[in-house]
């Protein structure tokens, strides 16, 4: 592959200095003149009827400017199913249900006012287990529905699983389950809603979907009776997203309602406890899976049935099965696939997108089951994976057209670096395991558009302003976009300024999701940069006296590629461009929408223009007396097309890996009857810097033909195969398989003791 | 949150006087427990009296044993070389408490006065036979730390009382101690269970010299190690075992201590002691851990902690312990 001066370089993340010195302005820091503070009162019960709300005492507290409840706001529901009112009336369906809200001159007064609001409830029996919720006679959560099962037809059929079952030489079947986990953004959620004199709304927000949020707010304003007004979304610096900000939340509509009522800007800012309780996490799942293969170990079929706890309302969590279909149909070559998923309403918190969008849950079942299959076959699971690995040029059963694919390389790199042959099945108490992943790497057409716009202008001194629709949520898009533009224009990366936080200024983008930003926004920036470069060279051609095709730019100097002596500084050309008669202002725009496809009605279609692959290998040690797992070595090989910035890419791999290790071993939203028992970092065991094992990222470059400079997405993949890789390594170490995340010391010790009682009787005691 | 008045007295007497004259006042040292309680609205003091300005509360002194002022931070204790060698259990506790940031401000006095069943320094102080000096309106009194705790968050302190210092006796070269904190994370975590031990040993054979010293540097199986100890007649002359998060207050496992004292170490005896200690404890199910698991961990950690304490007697200069063994 070619080497470039800017692309491929380890350039430090450009927002890092601001963040570490404390000069970055987060929503926490934002103050607007006259601003009031909004606070929300949540339900006392997971399921109850509201009999009465008395807000009179709160209203009289000095400093309180407005109190609203579900009984005095316009009827409005938001979310994917439009089943969620910002403030509830009639019934509450979960502990996080918003019952009333206050705007006051200080957060303390607002909080005091909340304590004065009296709500009378009649408690109703709750359902917290999706299996119970599906049973006949279970109370129905949402009025007007006949069942707690959401009307979503998640069903993927490829080939003929029944016949494949008959033809299979070896079949394994088991059930796996995963827990609720949450994003743990260090910047808690918040917004400021502010109306101008003409009722145009400005939302200062943390969203990772500014243009879709804009539309949500416009819809809400229409219902609130404010029609045909302008909504502007301005993002402060965002302290992490991970999918949590992929939808709009009740608190945002509450801020809007309070701002409307008080005619003042209103800020709602979550405390850490609220962040745990009232943002929407990754849901729990129960998965029945079976795999079958030929005598040689070629996969013949994969069948999965899944139940997802949707929680009380519907956000994007309910659509994660669409992404789960990707590994289910296309992780390894498997010709016959059947997948059915049900999302079920319960009185728990409601689920949302989270890094990987369902992929980690599905991959945990798939990759654990594959190890079981290998064992039953008497095969090395590494061999089984290699035999079935995806390859370039393949068309998968779901009609994905695989272009670049470095899966085999990833598997081999991992085996080599973890010393698979030397360690697998050897040392008692120590073990190695691996697991692979597929993810969208070239955007994902989940909406009608998968596009992103870019505008570039260059000032008189050769400094470049890039206006992009793509949001920076900490993942590093600013830096990557600046690198791509600098590379094309031949300027220093420091001379490229990226503006990405204002819908009034920046062009449209569908949002930060599906690991799409480097690929889609990168291609968009690339297109705009090429366009403006053409314009520059066109103008320079006259003054330098050389045809544009023989001109290039490096370090801000335009020169003839035939004779480097013929040159002129970029800034001079730009100044001349508009100081001369019939002048021209240099500006270019470009909209990139990848050539991927929406699923058809059978959920088939080429979702992404390219796919990302990877394999993780882990060496663990299990303390047989305490059940504690120590990760001794962690290899994370990722096919990323090309690393635009290897340093930031490694950052994504470290971060994803650690998030995945937390998912595998320690993180768990502990709900007891719908109530979160651990809404804090003491008891929600997100891992700390001291828990980071030695992670070794391996970057496999396959130079994707559609990616900007060959790059594919890497935002999510880092945590996808972590849990099954660890579970497989634990099995190798001590011969027990934990099928229920997280794999806590308690579960391991219990299983070890049971195994001891049973005597040595092989895999899963069969 | 209501506002409060903040005071910074310079002497113990002044602090006591202030405290006894005010209605709803609260002492604060490092504030790492107090501020959490304030935010959770579990306390709503109208007056906060800081002890940070009282010089007499922050010191480490070595005369007739060890004296640690209640206002000493965990970081200061962690860095003290004499404490690391001779009061190792306390070093273990203070060097794994919270995080660097917490250890730099949080005090040992605050840890004990807060009286959480999970307080990390409690078990080490119990096994190191610490006494506490309390200053009150009527002067000073001294009690063993065993008598200090009454229940979760409850101590013998009366209104106005200030815990002044901890005093620990001198221990000779045949005594070693350790504390094991069993957590899910490597930092910022409270123990699921904590076990401290202190042991004094003698060797019956080979003129009192332990021949199997080198085996400690290996990752030899524990049962082999114990068999060698038994061969060479390694005897437990004195023993303290303390356990945290197994009862409303940090507690001694006195029956287990009695079962071990005066005996030659063996694998069988070790198993018994673990069982006895586990039976003395009354752990509960909680969000942080299940009772059965806590009970199992007592058995494991009592053994490991004693081994570690013995190791420290035998290899006082070794910083590297084969962690996998104990
Ligand atoms: C993030 C975090 C992590 C933590 N991790 C741990 C951990 O791993 N292990 C652990 O054991 N604890 C931990 N803690 C709890 C806390 O840090 C310790 O208990 C600490 O030692 C308390 O000391 P302090 O000086 O901050 O006490 P403060 O909060 O100032 O006071 C605690 C209590 O003691 C009283 N008090 C303080 N000094 C005196 C005195 N001289 N006389 C009379 N009363 C007094 C105060 O009135 C108050 O009631 C953690 C806390 C936080 C916030």
Our measurement of the CA-to-CA distance between the termini of chain B, rounded to an integer number of angstroms, reads 47 Å
Overall number of structural domains of chain B: 3
CATH class of the largest domain in chain A: Alpha Beta
> Largest sheet of chain B, described in full?
5 strands, antiparallel
How many H/I helical runs of chain A?
19
CATH architecture descriptor text of the largest domain in chain A: 2-Layer Sandwich
**Major sheet of chain A:** 7 strands, mixed
- Per DSSP E runs of 2 or more residues, the count of β-strands of chain B stands at 14
> Helix and strand string of chain B, N-terminal first?
EHEHEEEHHHHHHEEEEEEEHEEHHH
Instruction: Indicate the CATH topology of the largest domain in chain A.
Output: Aldehyde Oxidoreductase, domain 4
**Oligomeric form:** heterodimer
Helix content of chain B: 25-40%
Q: Kindly identify the CATH topology of the largest domain in chain B.
A: Enolase-like, domain 1
Compact description:
The complex is a heterodimer of chains A (766) and B (326). Chain A has 766 residues and is of the alpha+beta class.
What do you see in this structure?
With 766 residues, chain A is α+β, with helices and mostly antiparallel strands. Chain A has three domains: 16-23 and 451-592, Aldehyde oxidase/xanthine dehydrogenase, molybdopterin binding domain (Aldehyde Oxidoreductase, domain 4, 2-Layer Sandwich), CATH 3.30.365; 31-124 and 189-269, Aldehyde oxidase/xanthine dehydrogenase, a/b hammerhead (Aldehyde Oxidoreductase, domain 3, Alpha-Beta Complex); 285-391 and 404-445 and 600-760, 2-Layer Sandwich (Aldehyde Oxidoreductase, domain 4), CATH 3.30.365. Chain A has 19 helices and 28 strands. In chain A, helix 10 (359-377) packs parallel to helix 18 (722-734) and helix 15 packs across helix 16 (570-579). With 326 residues, chain B is α+β, with helices and mostly antiparallel strands. Helices cover 33% and strands 23% of the residues of chain B. Chain B has helices spanning 12-21, 34-39, 74-78, 81-86, 88-95, 100-105, 108-114, 122-127, 222-231, 254-260, 267-280, 291-314, and strands at 5-7, 25-28, 47-50, 60-62, 66-69, 131-136, 139-144, 149-151, 154-155, 162-168, 175-182, 193-203, 234-244, 251-252. In chain B, helix 11 (267-280) crosses helix 12. The mean pLDDT of chain B is 93. The structure holds flavin-adenine dinucleotide. Flavin-adenine dinucleotide (FAD) binds next to strand 2, helix 2, helix 7 and strand 10 of chain B.
